[in-house]
Amino acid sequence: MLKVGVLGAGHLGKIHLRLLNQSAKYELIGFYDPDEINAKKVADEFGYSYYENINTLIEAVDVVDIVTPTLSHYDCAKKVMKSGKHIFIEKPITNTLQEAEELIELESKHNVKGQVGHVERFNPAFIAVKEKIENPMFIETHRLAEFNPRGTDVPVVLDLMIHDIDAILSVVESDVRQINASGVSVISNSPDIANARIEFKNGCVANLTASRISLKNMRKSRFFQKDAYISVDFLEKKVEVVKMKDAPESPGDFDMILQNAEGIKKQIYFENPDIESNNAIFEELETFADAINNGTEPIVSLTQGTAALRVALQVIQAFDNKN
């Protein structure tokens, strides 16, 4: 078992503590949180070992799970990696691109592994259809959330949209060519609503919308590709796969046939992939343990987390260019 410690015992940190404590692949050693009052409350309520010194905790473990505010990600990760320990780090990987790129260098220099917590990669609905998404040419995403003061210290792009940016980059095998975006601040000092149009060099276009002041929650993505339409509902964990193929010469009574202006006939049919229920946060932590134990690449590497941050920051820069 890998000895693991957690940095941060806020809302998400407590979830990570609980799941790591349940895991057969990790031995939860304890946690550190600079808020001593909250830390002692968590320790008393759940029985986890509270370390008053961050260095003492790092020395006692093999892996450190960083679930702190984004602004502290870089300093925490740097300290851990220089100690020769592996890191799981929540998204976004860091606050700046320079910080993220330095962590990639530290990963190689100190021969450790790192994984970024882009949890939607482990959503069972996305897992069920990811292999069916082949060369999509148009993508549309909507990630809407009811207002929650937690997370408003960063723009909605880094809070919400980056989930969809990472998912899109994992299926579009092309570099970004151009980004146009708009953002509006309604309640916070940073944008609460954002829309981005990302054009890739291979011709694919992605249109992303994110809001953290919606009246209802929504997390949906739609992928359009040659002869197929794939819809993923990350919130409800449902998928819809609609495909087309050349129509048979003698279609059956219940076959759905479309004919275009050129007279070409296509048959529409539906696929229903199996969706295996899981806890996505638990899954990402477990697969990171596997990557460490097997010497393999983490599913969401520091390089991939950096790529998502790079695009997210380009979206934010596109806001500034309009002002």
UniProtKB/TrEMBL annotation:
Gfo/Idh/MocA-like oxidoreductase N-terminal domain sequence ranges: 2-118
Location of the GFO/IDH/MocA-like oxidoreductase domain: 156-216
Gene3D superfamilies membership: Dihydrodipicolinate Reductase, domain 2, NAD(P)-binding Rossmann-like Domain
InterPro entries given in the database record: Gfo/Idh/MocA-like_OxRdtase_N, Gfo/Idh/MocA_Oxidoreductases, GFO_IDH_MocA-like_dom, NAD(P)-bd_dom_sf
Domain of life: Bacteria
Name under which the protein is recorded: Gfo/Idh/MocA family oxidoreductase
Organism: Croceitalea rosinachiae
